[in-house]
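Hey there, shall we discuss this one?
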Amino acid sequence: MARPLVWRAGKSWFLAISAFKVHLKLVFFDGAHLLPLPPVAMKQAPARALDVREPDTLDDKTVAAGVKQARQWPGWGKA
């Protein structure tokens, strides 16, 4: 499975998006700093995730706000 990483030009990775058979997982590498806090704790703190399944109602504004906040944190690695 390919794992697309979202990064800021000249900075670092801040989001991974993974597609599975029954859901989509958005992993925010510094997710513990986001408000509202993404609901899924990851083994590697401070990463947090949001799992989206087909019947779920996705709040686009909340996801967009999370991405905007995540861009402000240091992230992971170098681009």
Q: What stands out?
A: Residues 60-70 form the longest helix (11 residues). Helices lie at 60-70. The mean pLDDT is 85.
